[in-house]
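Exercise 7 asks you to align residues with tokens for two separate proteins.
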Amino acid sequence: MVELLGRAIAMGWPVLLMLVGLLLYFQVSISDPGKKKRASFQTLIGILCAFLAFIAISNYTYNFYGESRLLPVSLVMITLMAFVMGIYFPNISALMKIGGFMFFVAAALSGYGNWLPQVEGGFPPPVVKLDFQSMSSQQLGDEGEKIIFGGIGQSKTQGAIGKGQCPLCHGFQQGFLSERAPNLFGIPDRAVTRLDEPNYHKGNPAARTSSEKEAFPGSGTAENAQEYIAESHACPSCYVVPGFGVKGSNDTESPMPKIHKPPISLSLGELAAVDTWLYVREGKEAPSYEEIVTSYEKFIPEADRPVAGGEEEKGGGGNILADGSEPHDKLFMKAGCPACHTIPGIEGAVGKVGPLLMEGTNAINRIKDSNYKGKAKSPKEYITESILDPSAYVVKDFPDNQMPKDFGVRLTGGALNKIVDYLAQLKEGQPLPPKE
């Protein structure tokens, strides 16, 4: 504030001097005491209004290129100045009041828009193709941490989630109690013991009681720890750790998606990086890149393997998931929604980790819920709020802090609006909305 006053004085001191001079002139030239008093008062009001205008202009120029939300304050100051002059200067009263009303409307609209949650758009970051095969184990592990958590060193940050979306369900720290999926701390050693569990049926997939017997016909079962990890990623329902199956499936079906397929779509190189991190972060020697890739080739049919050098080989970094130009199916896949949610009308969106997104019906009911503490008044507002601030309302039977909270910066405004518009049209018992 002190800096703004200084700027206002620096900008307006010539005008202020002129107004002070006018005040002295009126004092000397007007002989009628009543008129002299009124003229002096009007000059003081003029000086005050001019100073207010200079502060408004200074605030506007000072904050225009910054991230401050104080720009509407300038309009408020000019509105106040116009109304004050309209009251004390009868000759220009009508003009000042009309101008003041216009500035008041502008200030109200600007203030409302400026205080809404901001969704930043932008161009997708440049594509970086990584040569996973030539990396050392440590370099591969670093890339794996980026894919899982979004950055190097982020594995210890609560809520950090990368392209792989693994922390949505899995814990990674020793002693952490995972409720939705097994804790992956110690998995390099524990994987060997899984092979000997009765329900795994090593070497005899036909004896399995799970919903999928093999990753694909003839693939067989894992023979070592790394193959078990690869099979778990490529075919999560081939073996379900007791207690972590889909509710009501008696541990025959896993809620985890196949992570080499949409919406996660990790390439063989990215899968090798993720697995390498699981070893090196515990100080263990990881299998070679070739050994890890070979383990995945055993459980991923050749037709489903990413094409080398293709779009799937992009690095795990990048901020913008979708820009809104995509057709609906691809948009939801790129945003990652099907990994957790079932979305009627969207191919492949059969996730069971999060609630069913029949939001045209659900949103209205949730806004009326006595436990709802959000600010939404309509289905679209509720859906937007749920995407930008998932903890504003947590659906019953689903835990908090599972959905990523950075969609506000990872989806452009166009992508967000397109998602919200589609979900708002999904109503129970009604036809599905049109898609692009």
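Second protein for Exercise 7:
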Amino acid sequence: MKNIPYGRQHITQQDIDAVSAVLQGDFLTQGPAVEQFENAFGQHVHAPHAVAVANGTAALHLCAMALDVKPGDKWLTTPISFVASGNCILYCGGQVDFVDIDPATLTMDLNQLEDKVKTGKYKGVIPVDFAGYPVRMDAVKSLADRYGLKIIEDACHAPGGYFTDEKEEIRYCGDGQYADLAIFSFHPVKHIACGEGGMVTGSKQSLVEKVKLLRTHGITRDPNKMHANHGGWYMEMQELGYNYRMPDVLCALGSSQLTRAEEGLVKRREIARRYSEAFAGLNLSFTHVPEGVGHAYHLYVITTTHRKQLYDFLREKGVFAQVHYIPMHTMPYYKNMGFKQGDFPKAEKYYEDCLSLPMYPSLSAEDQDYVIGLIKDFLQQH
């Protein structure tokens, strides 16, 4: 029987050689491979600055700290995301609220966002480029400017994704043009697989420098920034930071993976095209992508009223589809804050019906055809 996961890393001999070179070098952490990866990734997503960190969650936490989230500050995000998109505000003592999704894009409904923020209760927003579909960050920025909001773009699903803004210019997810800061993840099933790792990107030098300081315990060794200087050994802790560094070994793997990033995007979009053509006219739904939008396809999501049965059927046949995500506000921890079933009905309906199909660049046409065939067989029986 086949064993086809929903996502899978692809490690080549080039990747192994890159890691091996670091293991045989002088630095395992805080060495030159970090800056090399930062520079290469910044170029990939068209961002002026990039800061490598321990993981995507650390990236979110650092952004919240750099943007000075204080106890009691209220921020908004989407309920359809991994819990880290909300938790980062809680880490700083802030409060989290949600904006329901637009079923057409599965991202935050920007009309509902405006309804929320015009109340004046909120300090910031964390839109999520869900599954790789880019949020219209120019529209978010317009709202942010009008209502005094800060923006963290969660672009973990979307390196290489883009939209066309109101000026008819292509803007890449996480490029720093509209968000104060943006974040990415290098978990094994993401576009760039490092095992663990994350990146903060942005265009504002002062915020980027704050992130760099906070990722290393709040310590600086820069003589130009220190209050005193006792000698070459001297360092100063100037903020309460964390050990959120990404080691050279993982950065070397990331740089190697980046050399195939564009190729991987082409493959993901081809896989998505084949799914969409195969499912046209069937009793299920999938996201339609308009002209001017570059979906990065971290996930390919279908919705069906027979989700649980289809999930079980595929697993029996060796296809390990997945569900992304359980709405954040329905988690026990968040329900203890007062959220309840029914608060965000579009997100809840989506969760009842959604299923993420196998989507990764090394997925063969044969395996994809097997998945498609199983789904068609299932639908004929239901």
